[in-house]
Amino acid sequence: MTAAATVSRGRMPPDKAWQPLRVLTFYRVILAGLLSVLFFTLREHDPFNVALPGLFSTTLLSYLVFSLIVGFATRMHWPSYEVQALLQILADIGAIALLMHATGGVTSAFTALLVIAVATGALVLPGRLAYLFAAVATLAILFETGLANLSETSAGAGTITRAGLMGAVLFATAALAQVLVLRVRESESLARQRGIDLANLQQLNQYVIQQLQSGVLVVDADHQVRLANDTARQLLKLDSGSNARLEQVMPELARQLELWQRDSTWQPEPVQSPVTGSALLPRISRVATAQGSGALIFLEDSARLARQTQQLKLASLGRLTASIAHEIRNPLGAISHAAQLLAESEQLNPGDRRLTEIIGNHTRRLNSVIENVLQLSRRSASRPQALELAQWLRQFRDELVESEHLAAERLSIDVEPDDISIEVDAGHLHQLLTNLCQNAFRHAGEAGTVILQARRNDAGIVRLDVTDNGPGIEPAVAEQMFEPFFTTAGSGTGLGLYIARELCEINRASLTYHPVTGGGSCFRMQFAVEPNV
């Protein structure tokens, strides 16, 4: 919107709206100063064909002083824009008319400056005032021509004709300038609307990118991070507004980017997040930047994908266990009840009684399998809460020692630092630690010991190890022991470790096995860092 349009609505225009008037004052100072220098330095040569030197010099000096004064007034924004613009244009017309009169009238070269004055007036004050300036300038020319015709040096009717033609030119100039102003205002309005649309679209794009659950990175040809959404900053521990190089943020990802740039068919491998510790699955695409060919990197958190997979698993297991409950549990209960009744008979010989014991043992084992599967399908969603790990582990140790009738020295706790806190579902953590500790004591033997050791690294990742001094686990067994229904024990169901890993995953943690040098087993839980940490 132009300054005049703003003024016409009765509002003081902003500083930027005064720009046309400031440009006009700058032009006026340069014009008046240049004319003064030329006139007074080349006075003997009379470059302007001055007929009235006194009038010309007085008008020129007055015009220069006026130009300097209105220049400061425009900077001060006082008086108002409309008043200043009106006075300045009228003063321009008056001064130029006097200079014309002093240099030969309508035939003077200064007549062209009137056209510029009228055009300028139409630009700074568009609307009907543009025709007012044209009318004032035409009257000034006619008045000057009339005065000239009264003098002895009158040029006659030809001068009047030139004055009339000049008036027509001035009105045509005002009309053309008005059309130009209308076009400019339409262009400004369209540009402003397009700018608003682009700003809204940019804001929408930024919102969509920031809300993506996948991390988004844009790096230039020099591997400098140019853009990263909130998810990527959390996964890579990037500061807001940081433009660090990718090698500094994640060297392994930078190495894979270089491999992909050499061979675009190469498939990137998972990398470990320095914050959550979970595996990140990168996807790379080429993107053009001002610095050259860059790359767009999407980072998928494997933990999030695992949670989504877990939800699908639970839905499938829910349907499966419902079928199992109807198809197996009822006949299994009947078999178990019949075996109990048969075992109570006094006419059974020892061989038949042994058979009833076998039936009872296997029905109880099958019922345990059903209970574990039902536990998976019925398990509630994780309700994480902040736990002071050292205090919670001490309480857990006391409960486990009492319930399993263990010697207190067989289960020890090592937490460093003592103020470690994690976000986890306390019930899930109790269940999986109970499972791991029971397995550890069972495989370590009567003299076996278990250590619950917790550590926190510089990135804030908490690691909880369940370590025993037993014989360890064979590598071939370790590769399969987290699979459902895999067991090496004759009485086991093969679901304990599988359930433990599932409990970890829904709590944004991981469970892995690490052999201990010299014998023993270590099951390591690694908990993700929360975004506000």
Explain how this protein is built.
This protein is α+β, with helices and mostly antiparallel strands and about 525 residues long. It folds into 4 domains: about 5-195, no CATH class; about 215-300, PAS domain (Beta-Lactamase), CATH 3.30.450.20; about 305-380, Helix Hairpins (Orthogonal Bundle); about 385-525, Heat Shock Protein 90. The chain is about 60% helix and about 15% strand. It has 16 helices and 12 strands. It has a 5-stranded antiparallel β-sheet with strand order 2-1-5-4-3. It has a 5-stranded mixed β-sheet with strand order 7-9-10-12-11. α5 (about 110-125) runs parallel beside α7, α6 packs antiparallel against α7 (about 155-210) and α14 runs antiparallel to α16. It is rod-shaped. It starts with a helix and ends in a 6-residue tail after the last strand. The model is unreliable at about 1-15 (pLDDT under 50).
